[in-house]
Amino acid sequence: MSMIADALGVSSATVSNALSGKGRVSADLVDKIRKKADELGYVPSNAGRALRTGRSNVLGLVLPDISNPLFPQIAQAMETAASNAGYGVLIADSRGKVTTQTQAISRLIERGVDGLVVIPRRGTRIGDVGCPVAMVDTPSTPGNTVSADHWEGGAKVARHLVDLGHQNFLLIGHDPASNVQNDRIGGMKSALGRNTRHTTIWLETLMHERGERASLGLIDHVQNGVTAIAAVSDLHALRVLTELQTSGIKVPQQVSVTGFDDLIFSPVVTPSLTTVHMDMARIAELAIAALVREIEQGKSTVQNGKAAKQTVTADTSKVSMELMVRASSGPAASPDAPFPTGETL
Amino acid sequence: MSMIADALGVSSATVSNALSGKGRVSADLVDKIRKKADELGYVPSNAGRALRTGRSNVLGLVLPDISNPLFPQIAQAMETAASNAGYGVLIADSRGKVTTQTQAISRLIERGVDGLVVIPRRGTRIGDVGCPVAMVDTPSTPGNTVSADHWEGGAKVARHLVDLGHQNFLLIGHDPASNVQNDRIGGMKSALGRNTRHTTIWLETLMHERGERASLGLIDHVQNGVTAIAAVSDLHALRVLTELQTSGIKVPQQVSVTGFDDLIFSPVVTPSLTTVHMDMARIAELAIAALVREIEQGKSTVQNGKAAKQTVTADTSKVSMELMVRASSGPAASPDAPFPTGETL
DNA sequence: CTGAAAGCGCTTACAG
DNA sequence: CTGAAAGCGCTTACAG
């Protein structure tokens, strides 16, 4: 910057004003300065600016587990949204543990992030961290900033399966402590209606009770009349699908299978997986917009009366989920399959 | 910092020296200063430090496509390695395009990263960017810093299949312009030996010629005697596996299937997928170590004679890949399957 | 062992 | 429209 100023015989204040386009500099000079900057390959120093303005223009993204297959979508969407808003994204992996999550957050704070997007570990509340935080979890979580409407997503799959004529369902969750999964399953149940039956399996519980590679007992369920299996994740749906196929049960002719999240492999398998897609780009935009608004209003400083409001509020907190109907749900199960009377859950 | 200095009646220089543990301060004072710092919840300003030292302690990670299913492993490993070395990680997605890759790199540079880890878009060479760069591609790529030994990985799968008694192979690649994939396929071919046959399909080429959802013609290949199908990615292996299963072809009884990368779903499907696993943690450590060494030697400044050496060199440039034998390769194809004489590729 | 001083590169009132 | 000055928070020679 001083190089440009010296080369042109102007003050660095003028260079700064010209380059930041604040309009206090004559058009001619702005042109000259711009040209010189290009010529010298001038790259403004973030450190200098950050020190002066007190803002780093960097956001932190805290993920519960980077190796989660949904992470790519999230990271990509956040990076794009942040980048469009002029922010960089620093990532931190909390590796499933709450303590690590706290450490991850501290590390980001130390690096001077202006705000944080946190995908919390199931049911974690984030303490006061000294900067605005956007939480992306599920609408039923207190403090949630934006997220997909997982409940509605569950309802959509269930309704789809009901419309197909299914009456006997197996719902597969993983972790009963997960808000997201509970919402998805809750949504499914809410849409199943009176003359259907369903059973819910939580894999984590099952594995805990019967060991790591416990059988899901899929065949038994099918023999007992289940014709639709709806999982809270494509990963589980994939497991179900391939297990059924290996046992010679035809999908979707004999059993319909659905997942969640539209993971990368879902359209690729045969039969392709019916699933529910979330508009991560929109969620990210809303989260980042809320964060940026708070940051740029400067409200986040501890100044104001009590503790600064921690988690930020977005314009819309629920983003609709889209049902992707593909081959694995297929046509209705043959209607002559007798409806097993008995307990309706 | 000045708060601590004032509270204790010492100079900020002393606070700085005490906190950074340079040993120029008496033990007593160090203790007092540490306590005061904790008490005040002092968090050093990165901006101040960066401005003074000229280093941000942040590294940039440039990914060809965040939505790649391998990305979680990479990002996680890099984040851990960087964090252990005292660096943060700023991500940037080059979204497949070379121009976007260049933009992504510029953005990171503008944010003042000290170094870059680049997973390059197939066959891209990185120009002079003004900071050290570690490239993670494949050993056969010029400028490669560290990577898995993809060729060896390919050789390992092929050898495994040969040992199982297979003699007629279908190799499935995606993009013939990818160095990684070419190395994997090359390695496979190198290990197939004399009395075997093989055909290679490149999906991108196929799709280009026959449309998006073109059939792989798997059944035909199997009818023509193929008993082992080896793909360059678990994603393709999964496609193959489910297509075969849907057609009633038993895996592994009739055909063995193998993939690459040990993606998250690979151990979960039935039959579980035989694949090749890379030690991303080690690759990340080597890449980051090489980068940090270069950064901390300060060699990267443009000072020295010609242009500063761009891509950095690691202690080891090839990291071994590990074969994960699982159910999908299974026992040898029945040996009474007649070996179709004819062209040996 | 401790401190006073300078300066990293910016931006922002404030004067002119 | 342009410039001189101050200061953001740190660290690093340099004195003492």
From TrEMBL, chains A, B:
Keywords: DNA-binding, Transcription, Transcription regulation
Protein origin, superkingdom: Bacteria
Domain HTH lacI-type: 1-53
Example of a GO MF term: DNA-binding transcription factor activity
InterPro entries registered for this protein in UniProt: HTH_LacI, LacI/GalR-like_sensor, Lambda_DNA-bd_dom_sf, Peripla_BP_I
Protein name: LacI family transcriptional regulator
